[in-house]
Amino acid sequence: MATVAKDFSIEEKLTAVLTLQKIDSKRDEIKTLKGELPMEVNDLEDEVEGLQTRVNNIDSEIASIGEYIESRKAAKKEAEALIKKYEKQQDNVKNSREFEAITKEMEMQELEMKLCDKHVKDAGVRMQETQHSKLQSQSLLEAKQEALAAKKEELDKIIKETEKEENELTKNSEKAKEKVEERLLTAYERIRASYRNGLAVVPVLRDSCGGCFNIIPPQRQAEIHQRKKIIVCEHCGRILVDNDLNESVKA
Questions:
Q1: Is it the case that residue 6 has pLDDT exceeding 60?
Q2: Whether 137 and 193 share a structural domain
Q3: Do the domain assignments include residue 1?
Q4: Domain residue limits at 223
Q5: Average pLDDT in the 163-192 region?
C-alpha cells in the first residue's frame, strides 16, 4: 500500500513512479535471462514422472505375465503327473468301462498340456512385446532425464548468479511502492500488466513515446518537460516523462 503524502509535487510523484519502474525493469531483465527455463523444467519434470509411471506399470505387467507363464507350466506338470497316474491305473482296470473312463481322463490331460503350451507361447510373445515397449520407454525416460538435468543445471546457475540481486530488487521495489501515490500506483500496475515488456513509465525519445514510438506533439512535449501534471500517451496509455528526468533517476 502506498503511503505518499498528498501534497507531494507532480515532479516528486513522477520521480517516485519512475524509480519504481527502473527497479521493476531490472527485475524483468532477470526474468528474461531465465527465459522459458522454469516452464521447460516443470514440463520435463512432468514428462519424467509420467514416463517413470509408465515404466513401473510395464514392470508390473512383465511380472504378471511371468507369473502367468509359471502357473501354466505348473499346470502342465500337474497334467503330466496325472497322465502317469492314469497309465498305472490302466494296468489294474477290471473292465472296459473303467479303461475307457481312464483313457478319456488321459485325453483331457493331454489337451490340457497342449492348451498350457499354447498359453505359454502366447504369453511369451506378449512378454517380448512388453519388454520391447519397456526398452523404448526406458530409453525415452533416460533421454528426458538427461535433458532435465541439463536444464536444471542451466537454471540453477542463473538463479545462483542472480538470486542476491533479485532479492534485493524485490525489497527495493516494495520500498519504492510505498513512496508512490496510491492512485498512481494502481494506474502503474494496471498499465504494467497490460504490456509484455512491463513498461508503464517511459521517456520521450526523439519526439516519440518510448513505449509505442508514436510521435508526441511539440506542445505535449513541452507540458511533459514542465512536470506540472501527469501525462499519458494518447496511443498506448503509458505514463510519459521527459528524458532529462529519466536520465537523472537511477534504480
A1: no
A2: no
A3: no
A4: 10-33+176-248
A5: 91
